[in-house]
Amino acid sequence: MDQAVEIAYFILLNALGHLCFVGSRMTTTLFALQLGASAFTVGALVALFAVLPMLLSVTAGRLIDRLGPRRPVMLGLAVLACGAALPFLFPSVEILYVSSPLIGTAFMLLHIAMNSVFGAYGTPEQRAVTFSWLSLGFSISNSLGPLIAGYAIETFGHAGAMLALAMLPVIALVLLARRKRPLPRPAHVARGRHGGVAELLRMPALRHTLIASGLLNMGWDIYSFLMPLYGSRIGLAPGTIGVVMSCFAVATFVVRAVLTQLVRHVHQWLLIASAMTVAGTAYFLFPLVQSVPLLMALSFVLGLGLGASQPVIMALLYEASPPGRQGEAVGIRTTMLNCSQTFIPLASGAISSALGMTPVFTLIAALLLAGAWFARRRV
Protein backbone atom coordinates (compact mmCIF):
# COMPACT_ATOMS: atom_id res chain seq x y z
CA MET A 1 0.00 0.00 0.00
CA ASP A 2 1.29 3.47 -0.89
CA GLN A 3 2.80 5.21 2.16
CA ALA A 4 0.50 8.24 1.96
CA VAL A 5 -2.59 6.01 1.70
CA GLU A 6 -1.36 3.86 4.60
CA ILE A 7 -0.87 6.89 6.85
CA ALA A 8 -4.28 8.27 5.82
CA TYR A 9 -5.83 4.91 6.76
CA PHE A 10 -4.25 4.99 10.24
CA ILE A 11 -5.32 8.62 10.72
CA LEU A 12 -8.90 7.75 9.76
CA LEU A 13 -9.09 4.84 12.24
CA ASN A 14 -7.83 7.06 15.05
CA ALA A 15 -9.94 10.07 14.06
CA LEU A 16 -13.21 8.11 14.02
CA GLY A 17 -12.58 6.91 17.57
CA HIS A 18 -11.43 10.34 18.71
CA LEU A 19 -14.49 12.03 17.18
CA CYS A 20 -16.69 9.79 19.29
CA PHE A 21 -14.64 10.49 22.42
CA VAL A 22 -14.51 14.27 22.00
CA GLY A 23 -18.15 14.56 21.03
CA SER A 24 -19.31 12.25 23.83
CA ARG A 25 -17.43 14.20 26.47
CA MET A 26 -18.98 17.50 25.37
CA THR A 27 -22.43 15.93 25.00
CA THR A 28 -22.18 14.29 28.43
CA THR A 29 -21.45 17.68 30.00
CA LEU A 30 -24.41 19.39 28.31
CA PHE A 31 -26.72 16.36 28.75
CA ALA A 32 -26.02 16.34 32.50
CA LEU A 33 -26.74 20.08 32.75
CA GLN A 34 -29.98 19.61 30.78
CA LEU A 35 -30.98 16.84 33.21
CA GLY A 36 -30.48 19.26 36.12
CA ALA A 37 -27.05 18.20 37.36
CA SER A 38 -24.95 20.63 39.41
CA ALA A 39 -21.50 21.87 38.37
CA PHE A 40 -19.95 19.46 40.88
CA THR A 41 -21.86 16.53 39.34
CA VAL A 42 -20.71 17.57 35.88
CA GLY A 43 -17.14 17.69 37.18
CA ALA A 44 -17.55 14.19 38.61
CA LEU A 45 -18.88 12.87 35.29
CA VAL A 46 -15.99 14.39 33.35
CA ALA A 47 -13.56 12.96 35.91
CA LEU A 48 -15.04 9.50 35.36
CA PHE A 49 -13.78 9.58 31.77
CA ALA A 50 -10.31 9.36 33.32
CA VAL A 51 -10.64 7.18 36.44
CA LEU A 52 -10.16 3.71 34.94
CA PRO A 53 -7.57 4.89 32.37
CA MET A 54 -5.62 6.38 35.28
CA LEU A 55 -5.47 2.93 36.90
CA LEU A 56 -5.09 0.76 33.79
CA SER A 57 -2.94 2.71 31.31
CA VAL A 58 0.44 1.19 32.24
CA THR A 59 -1.01 -2.33 32.20
CA ALA A 60 -2.64 -1.60 28.84
CA GLY A 61 0.68 -0.31 27.48
CA ARG A 62 2.48 -3.48 28.56
CA LEU A 63 -0.27 -5.59 26.99
CA ILE A 64 0.07 -3.71 23.70
CA ASP A 65 3.87 -4.12 23.80
CA ARG A 66 3.33 -7.88 24.15
CA LEU A 67 0.33 -8.53 21.84
CA GLY A 68 0.71 -5.82 19.23
CA PRO A 69 -1.90 -3.13 18.50
CA ARG A 70 -4.56 -4.82 16.31
CA ARG A 71 -6.67 -6.57 18.96
CA PRO A 72 -6.48 -3.66 21.44
CA VAL A 73 -7.60 -1.26 18.69
CA MET A 74 -10.58 -3.46 17.83
CA LEU A 75 -11.55 -3.87 21.49
CA GLY A 76 -11.23 -0.13 22.12
CA LEU A 77 -13.45 0.76 19.15
CA ALA A 78 -16.10 -1.81 20.13
CA VAL A 79 -16.33 -0.64 23.76
CA LEU A 80 -16.31 2.99 22.63
CA ALA A 81 -19.39 2.37 20.48
CA CYS A 82 -21.20 0.52 23.28
CA GLY A 83 -20.41 3.19 25.86
CA ALA A 84 -21.62 6.03 23.65
CA ALA A 85 -24.86 4.20 22.84
CA LEU A 86 -25.84 3.65 26.49
CA PRO A 87 -27.21 7.20 27.17
CA PHE A 88 -29.44 6.83 24.10
CA LEU A 89 -30.89 3.57 25.44
CA PHE A 90 -31.18 4.75 29.06
CA PRO A 91 -31.23 8.59 29.17
CA SER A 92 -30.50 9.58 32.78
CA VAL A 93 -27.76 11.06 34.92
CA GLU A 94 -27.24 7.63 36.48
CA ILE A 95 -26.36 5.98 33.15
CA LEU A 96 -23.86 8.78 32.44
CA TYR A 97 -21.95 7.50 35.47
CA VAL A 98 -21.61 4.20 33.57
CA SER A 99 -21.01 5.48 30.04
CA SER A 100 -18.32 8.01 31.00
CA PRO A 101 -15.75 5.50 32.36
CA LEU A 102 -16.53 3.04 29.54
CA ILE A 103 -15.86 5.67 26.87
CA GLY A 104 -12.74 6.94 28.64
CA THR A 105 -11.25 3.45 29.07
CA ALA A 106 -12.00 2.44 25.49
CA PHE A 107 -10.35 5.54 24.07
CA MET A 108 -7.33 5.04 26.36
CA LEU A 109 -6.78 1.61 24.80
CA LEU A 110 -7.22 2.97 21.29
CA HIS A 111 -4.92 5.94 21.97
CA ILE A 112 -1.99 3.89 23.33
CA ALA A 113 -2.30 1.30 20.56
CA MET A 114 -2.38 3.91 17.78
CA ASN A 115 0.63 5.69 19.29
CA SER A 116 2.43 2.37 18.99
CA VAL A 117 1.37 2.06 15.34
CA PHE A 118 2.56 5.56 14.40
CA GLY A 119 5.80 5.24 16.36
CA ALA A 120 6.67 1.99 14.59
CA TYR A 121 5.75 3.20 11.11
CA GLY A 122 8.62 4.42 8.95
CA THR A 123 12.19 5.18 9.97
CA PRO A 124 13.39 6.95 13.15
CA GLU A 125 14.27 9.98 11.03
CA GLN A 126 10.63 10.19 9.88
CA ARG A 127 9.16 9.80 13.37
CA ALA A 128 8.55 13.49 14.13
CA VAL A 129 6.84 13.92 10.76
CA THR A 130 4.77 10.75 11.28
CA PHE A 131 3.59 11.97 14.67
CA SER A 132 2.80 15.33 13.08
CA TRP A 133 0.41 13.51 10.73
CA LEU A 134 -1.19 11.80 13.72
CA SER A 135 -1.55 15.17 15.40
CA LEU A 136 -3.14 16.61 12.26
CA GLY A 137 -5.67 13.82 12.47
CA PHE A 138 -6.37 14.73 16.09
CA SER A 139 -6.82 18.34 15.01
CA ILE A 140 -9.37 17.37 12.39
CA SER A 141 -11.38 15.29 14.85
CA ASN A 142 -11.08 18.01 17.50
CA SER A 143 -12.43 20.48 14.95
CA LEU A 144 -15.34 18.35 13.85
CA GLY A 145 -16.17 16.71 17.19
CA PRO A 146 -17.68 19.75 18.96
CA LEU A 147 -19.49 20.84 15.79
CA ILE A 148 -20.99 17.39 15.21
CA ALA A 149 -21.96 17.08 18.87
CA GLY A 150 -23.42 20.59 19.15
CA TYR A 151 -25.56 20.43 16.05
CA ALA A 152 -26.52 16.79 16.67
CA ILE A 153 -27.85 17.87 20.07
CA GLU A 154 -29.90 20.65 18.47
CA THR A 155 -31.19 18.27 15.76
CA PHE A 156 -31.72 14.96 17.57
CA GLY A 157 -31.55 15.90 21.25
CA HIS A 158 -28.85 14.86 23.70
CA ALA A 159 -29.65 11.12 23.65
CA GLY A 160 -29.89 11.01 19.86
CA ALA A 161 -26.54 12.80 19.58
CA MET A 162 -24.89 10.06 21.64
CA LEU A 163 -26.25 7.39 19.28
CA ALA A 164 -24.95 9.30 16.26
CA LEU A 165 -21.50 9.50 17.86
CA ALA A 166 -21.58 5.75 18.61
CA MET A 167 -21.79 5.02 14.87
CA LEU A 168 -18.33 6.49 14.23
CA PRO A 169 -16.23 3.76 15.93
CA VAL A 170 -18.49 1.16 14.27
CA ILE A 171 -17.33 2.49 10.89
CA ALA A 172 -13.70 2.25 12.07
CA LEU A 173 -14.27 -1.35 13.20
CA VAL A 174 -15.53 -2.28 9.75
CA LEU A 175 -12.50 -0.66 8.10
CA LEU A 176 -10.10 -2.48 10.41
CA ALA A 177 -11.85 -5.84 9.97
CA ARG A 178 -11.38 -5.54 6.20
CA ARG A 179 -7.61 -5.07 6.57
CA LYS A 180 -5.75 -8.35 6.20
CA ARG A 181 -2.19 -7.23 6.95
CA PRO A 182 -1.06 -6.68 10.57
CA LEU A 183 -0.72 -3.16 11.92
CA PRO A 184 2.85 -1.86 12.35
CA ARG A 185 4.33 -2.50 15.79
CA PRO A 186 7.72 -1.88 17.48
CA ALA A 187 10.19 -4.76 17.39
CA HIS A 188 9.25 -7.24 20.10
CA VAL A 189 11.84 -7.45 22.88
CA ALA A 190 11.80 -10.32 25.37
CA ARG A 191 10.92 -8.92 28.79
CA GLY A 192 13.43 -9.77 31.47
CA ARG A 193 13.51 -8.58 35.06
CA HIS A 194 13.30 -4.83 35.39
CA GLY A 195 12.31 -2.16 37.86
CA GLY A 196 8.93 -1.42 36.27
CA VAL A 197 7.65 2.14 36.24
CA ALA A 198 10.21 3.33 38.78
CA GLU A 199 13.03 2.26 36.48
CA LEU A 200 11.58 4.26 33.58
CA LEU A 201 11.06 7.34 35.75
CA ARG A 202 14.74 7.29 36.75
CA MET A 203 15.66 8.07 33.13
CA PRO A 204 16.05 11.89 33.04
CA ALA A 205 15.05 12.42 29.40
CA LEU A 206 11.91 10.33 29.81
CA ARG A 207 11.04 11.89 33.18
CA HIS A 208 11.34 15.47 31.89
CA THR A 209 9.24 14.62 28.83
CA LEU A 210 6.54 13.05 31.00
CA ILE A 211 6.35 16.12 33.27
CA ALA A 212 5.96 18.48 30.31
CA SER A 213 3.47 16.13 28.68
CA GLY A 214 1.33 15.98 31.80
CA LEU A 215 1.09 19.76 32.08
CA LEU A 216 0.35 20.28 28.40
CA ASN A 217 -2.30 17.61 28.27
CA MET A 218 -3.88 19.02 31.42
CA GLY A 219 -4.16 22.37 29.63
CA TRP A 220 -5.57 20.63 26.57
CA ASP A 221 -8.15 18.40 28.21
CA ILE A 222 -9.40 20.71 30.95
CA TYR A 223 -10.53 23.03 28.15
CA SER A 224 -13.14 20.48 27.07
CA PHE A 225 -14.60 20.63 30.60
CA LEU A 226 -14.31 24.36 31.29
CA MET A 227 -15.56 25.72 27.96
CA PRO A 228 -18.97 23.97 27.88
CA LEU A 229 -19.52 24.84 31.55
CA TYR A 230 -18.45 28.47 31.10
CA GLY A 231 -20.42 28.81 27.85
CA SER A 232 -23.55 27.42 29.51
CA ARG A 233 -23.16 29.81 32.45
CA ILE A 234 -22.99 32.85 30.19
CA GLY A 235 -26.01 31.67 28.18
CA LEU A 236 -24.50 30.29 24.97
CA ALA A 237 -26.45 27.71 22.91
CA PRO A 238 -24.89 24.24 22.41
CA GLY A 239 -24.18 24.97 18.75
CA THR A 240 -22.42 28.23 19.66
CA ILE A 241 -20.32 26.44 22.27
CA GLY A 242 -19.38 23.92 19.59
CA VAL A 243 -18.31 26.71 17.23
CA VAL A 244 -16.14 28.33 19.94
CA MET A 245 -14.49 25.02 20.79
CA SER A 246 -13.91 24.24 17.12
CA CYS A 247 -11.80 27.42 16.85
CA PHE A 248 -9.39 25.79 19.29
CA ALA A 249 -9.23 22.68 17.12
CA VAL A 250 -8.87 24.63 13.87
CA ALA A 251 -5.89 26.45 15.38
CA THR A 252 -4.21 23.15 16.25
CA PHE A 253 -4.68 22.09 12.63
CA VAL A 254 -3.20 25.35 11.32
CA VAL A 255 -0.12 25.22 13.54
CA ARG A 256 0.52 21.54 12.84
CA ALA A 257 0.33 22.16 9.10
CA VAL A 258 3.60 24.10 9.45
CA LEU A 259 5.01 22.11 12.36
CA THR A 260 7.61 20.24 10.31
CA GLN A 261 9.28 23.56 9.49
CA LEU A 262 9.03 24.77 13.09
CA VAL A 263 10.75 21.64 14.43
CA ARG A 264 13.60 22.09 11.97
CA HIS A 265 14.34 25.64 13.08
CA VAL A 266 13.33 25.81 16.77
CA HIS A 267 14.76 23.83 19.67
CA GLN A 268 12.17 21.30 20.83
CA TRP A 269 12.15 22.40 24.48
CA LEU A 270 11.99 26.09 23.49
CA LEU A 271 8.93 25.26 21.41
CA ILE A 272 7.33 23.51 24.41
CA ALA A 273 8.12 26.44 26.74
CA SER A 274 6.62 28.93 24.28
CA ALA A 275 3.49 26.80 23.93
CA MET A 276 2.97 26.73 27.70
CA THR A 277 3.43 30.50 27.96
CA VAL A 278 0.84 31.18 25.25
CA ALA A 279 -1.62 28.69 26.78
CA GLY A 280 -1.21 30.05 30.31
CA THR A 281 -1.79 33.61 29.15
CA ALA A 282 -4.94 32.60 27.25
CA TYR A 283 -6.37 30.85 30.32
CA PHE A 284 -5.81 33.99 32.41
CA LEU A 285 -7.87 36.01 29.90
CA PHE A 286 -10.82 33.62 29.48
CA PRO A 287 -12.89 34.70 32.54
CA LEU A 288 -12.60 38.33 31.44
CA VAL A 289 -14.43 37.63 28.17
CA GLN A 290 -18.09 36.85 27.38
CA SER A 291 -18.32 38.03 23.77
CA VAL A 292 -18.53 35.11 21.32
CA PRO A 293 -16.00 36.59 18.81
CA LEU A 294 -13.48 37.19 21.62
CA LEU A 295 -14.04 33.69 23.02
CA MET A 296 -13.41 32.32 19.53
CA ALA A 297 -10.20 34.36 19.28
CA LEU A 298 -8.96 33.19 22.68
CA SER A 299 -9.77 29.59 21.83
CA PHE A 300 -7.81 29.97 18.61
CA VAL A 301 -4.77 31.38 20.45
CA LEU A 302 -4.95 28.58 23.02
CA GLY A 303 -5.10 26.03 20.20
CA LEU A 304 -2.03 27.54 18.52
CA GLY A 305 -0.03 27.18 21.73
CA LEU A 306 -1.05 23.71 22.77
CA GLY A 307 -1.27 22.36 19.22
CA ALA A 308 2.38 23.12 18.44
CA SER A 309 3.68 21.07 21.36
CA GLN A 310 1.88 17.73 21.14
CA PRO A 311 3.73 16.09 18.21
CA VAL A 312 7.07 17.17 19.71
CA ILE A 313 6.13 15.58 23.03
CA MET A 314 5.05 12.31 21.38
CA ALA A 315 8.28 12.05 19.37
CA LEU A 316 10.44 12.86 22.42
CA LEU A 317 8.57 10.27 24.49
CA TYR A 318 8.98 7.50 21.93
CA GLU A 319 12.68 8.27 21.45
CA ALA A 320 13.36 8.38 25.21
CA SER A 321 11.66 5.00 25.84
CA PRO A 322 13.73 1.78 26.05
CA PRO A 323 13.24 -0.68 23.16
CA GLY A 324 10.17 -2.85 23.62
CA ARG A 325 8.71 -0.59 26.33
CA GLN A 326 7.26 2.23 24.23
CA GLY A 327 3.70 1.21 25.03
CA GLU A 328 4.50 1.13 28.73
CA ALA A 329 5.97 4.65 28.53
CA VAL A 330 2.88 5.92 26.72
CA GLY A 331 0.85 4.17 29.43
CA ILE A 332 2.68 6.15 32.12
CA ARG A 333 1.95 9.36 30.21
CA THR A 334 -1.69 8.37 29.90
CA THR A 335 -1.88 7.59 33.63
CA MET A 336 -0.52 11.04 34.49
CA LEU A 337 -2.93 12.64 32.04
CA ASN A 338 -5.92 10.79 33.43
CA CYS A 339 -4.90 11.50 37.00
CA SER A 340 -5.14 15.21 36.27
CA GLN A 341 -8.37 14.65 34.31
CA THR A 342 -9.85 12.81 37.29
CA PHE A 343 -9.03 15.24 40.07
CA ILE A 344 -8.89 18.61 38.30
CA PRO A 345 -12.51 18.46 37.00
CA LEU A 346 -13.67 17.44 40.48
CA ALA A 347 -11.74 20.32 42.05
CA SER A 348 -12.79 22.67 39.25
CA GLY A 349 -16.46 21.76 39.67
CA ALA A 350 -16.27 22.27 43.43
CA ILE A 351 -14.38 25.59 43.14
CA SER A 352 -16.63 26.93 40.37
CA SER A 353 -19.74 26.01 42.38
CA ALA A 354 -18.42 27.86 45.43
CA LEU A 355 -16.39 30.73 43.96
CA GLY A 356 -17.19 30.98 40.26
CA MET A 357 -15.12 30.22 37.16
CA THR A 358 -12.33 32.78 37.56
CA PRO A 359 -10.29 30.88 40.22
CA VAL A 360 -10.38 27.74 38.07
CA PHE A 361 -9.02 29.49 34.97
CA THR A 362 -6.39 31.22 37.11
CA LEU A 363 -5.18 27.96 38.66
CA ILE A 364 -4.75 26.26 35.28
CA ALA A 365 -2.95 29.35 33.93
CA ALA A 366 -0.52 29.37 36.86
CA LEU A 367 0.32 25.68 36.42
CA LEU A 368 1.02 26.14 32.71
CA LEU A 369 3.24 29.17 33.29
CA ALA A 370 5.19 27.21 35.92
CA GLY A 371 5.57 24.48 33.31
CA ALA A 372 6.93 27.02 30.82
CA TRP A 373 9.66 27.92 33.32
CA PHE A 374 10.48 24.21 33.77
CA ALA A 375 10.67 23.61 30.01
CA ARG A 376 12.84 26.70 29.42
CA ARG A 377 15.45 25.22 31.77
CA ARG A 378 15.77 22.17 29.45
CA VAL A 379 16.94 24.34 26.52
Overview of this structure, please?
The chain is mostly helical and about 375 residues long. The chain has one domain (about 5-180, about 200-375): MFS general substrate transporter like domains (Growth Hormone, Chain: A), CATH 1.20.1250.20. The chain contains 13 helices and no strands. The protein has helices at about 5-35, 40-65, 70-90, 95-120, 125-175, 195-200, 205-235, 240-255, 260-265, 270-285, 290-320, 325-355, 360-375. Helix 2 packs parallel to helix 4 (about 95-120) and helix 7 (about 205-235) packs parallel to helix 12. About 55% of the residues are buried.
Beta-strand fraction estimate: under 5%
Class by alpha and beta content: mainly alpha
Helix content: over 70%
As for the number of domains, it is 1
Q: Rounded to an integer, what's the Rg over CA atoms?
A: 19 Å
Q: Mind telling me the CATH superfamily name?
A: MFS general substrate transporter like domains
**The CATH class:** Mainly Alpha
Q: What's the gist of this structure?
A:
Helix content is 84%, strand content 0%. The protein has 379 residues and is an all-alpha fold.
Keywords:
single chain, 379 residues, mainly alpha, Growth Hormone, Chain: A
